[in-house]
Amino acid sequence: MERTVRYSKKREAILATIQGTSCHPSAEWVYQQLRPLHPDLSLGTVYRNLTFFRERGLVQSVGVVQGQERFDAITTPHSHFVCNCCGTVLDLPDICPEGGLERTVSTQYGFAVERCELTFYGLCPNCTDQQNLKEETLS
Amino acid sequence: MERTVRYSKKREAILATIQGTSCHPSAEWVYQQLRPLHPDLSLGTVYRNLTFFRERGLVQSVGVVQGQERFDAITTPHSHFVCNCCGTVLDLPDICPEGGLERTVSTQYGFAVERCELTFYGLCPNCTDQQNLKEETLS
DNA sequence: CTCCTTAACAATACTTATTCTTGTTATGCC
DNA sequence: GGCATAACAAGAATAAGTATTGTTAAGGAG
Q1: How many CB atoms lie within 10 A of CB B25?
Q2: pTM value?
Q3: Facing residues of A120 across strands?
Q4: Rounded alpha-carbon distances, angstroms, from residue A82 to A22, A31, A76, B63
Q5: Between B9-19 and B43-55, two packed helices, what is the crossing angle to 10 degrees?
Q6: In degrees rounded to 5, what are phi and psi of residue A17?
Q7: Cα–Cα distance between A17 and B106 in angstroms, integer?
Q8: The pLDDT value given to residue A132
Q9: Strand C contacts (CB < 7 A) among A residues 11-70?
Q10: Residues B11-70: pLDDT tens digits?
């Protein structure tokens, strides 16, 4: 009794939306994007399909940012930067020799490392500027 | 295991064609009528469906005229005139008390008459004129 | 023989039944 | 309180079954 996967326009639209953006969206963001074209879309369907895609490796989780899980359609290993102020998530390609780190952990501790997630948190340049402005006006 | 009847555009078109004319057409005539709109229609399909309609009482046969069977979508009892020259078939409504004839046969001979076909053969006015013209020019 | 009609059979198309997907609502959880 | 999952009926896509068609060949009447 193998479960067969069926085509649906909404599933396709959800996947296309996350694949067509680089903003590492949340379920809610995908939902709001699709509502104009799919007025009868349900938020539950977005959640279900994101889980569905993750299980099949079409999408990966970037983690929870400000209470919302964020997703990424690029599933090759790469690092992320998360701004704690505005919630922006950015890719950090080639920022760090991840393979090298994995190898280090593997050889030094004898662990079999399957995957390595490397995420930096902090303030993006934009939010840093605004923070400085606020401090200047206060002083 | 009852045979279910299915819808098909061609069957519908064939029925509409015969119902939309008063010329008592042959299979070939119906076929030629439909070819522009249904280029992939097959003559076999026309024959099959005419038989199909006759079996269900949607159509009745007027008999064979000049080698071709002719059909009629009017299934209430009425008489016909067939021109042996041009092949035209015409309805003759109320020309003759058919019910009366049936009753006569039924009562005089004890037959159970189910149906009565009354068809006249001869020359239509048009062909009669042309026949006369030809004779005049010859004499 | 020729032409009209039917038969045979594979390919196509319609319908039904199955069950996957969705919307809605309620529930869990941090 | 807000994000995420669970439950279940309603809706929709697929698969299986079989009716319909196209094609070709064969039958039959004139």
Answers
A1: 24
A2: 0.75
A3: A81
A4: 13, 22, 18, 87
A5: 70
A6: -65, -45
A7: 81
A8: 82
A9: 11, 38, 40-45, 48-49
A10: 999 999 999 999 999 999 999 999 999 999 999 999 999 999 999 999 999 999 999 999
